[in-house]
Amino acid sequence: MEKRRRELENAAEEIEQLFADLWQVFPFSRGMRRGYRPEADVYRTEDPPSLTVVVELPGVDPNEVKVIASPQALLIAGERKRPKDCGQYQQLEIEYGSFQRQVTLAEDVDPEQATATYERGFLTIKLPIAPRPAPAERIAIVVTSR
Known about the structure:
Layout: H1 2-25, E1 40-45, E2 50-56, E3 66-69, E4 73-80, E5 97-104, E6 115-119, E7 122-128
Antiparallel strand pairs: 1-2, 2-7, 3-4, 4-5, 6-7
């Protein structure tokens, strides 16, 4: 059941990414898109086993970014604010606005041990992989008759 739920969450994330990519392919539609959607990479490392999520957040104040972790997902939310007093715009290509990005994790993590750092426009979140419970011993059950 858990595997099926993750497959559905991964499919939803892939569909969201396809639509985001579509906006990039058709430039005429860029003006219709509103808001900012940061890009994210996720990779697994060993020693110690962990998942690392890197989110591209240039121009975002790291003190105003919210990061919420659960054992199976990560939520990153905030806002990239348009600079004030820029004069009269002649061209608008940079996306600004509130964002919320959910990343479904391939393995269970320990959110209480997670750390996050922000450097040069990149937010890096390290999530230790949760230890797996020890497999239960096999126990013989004696069958009796009444």
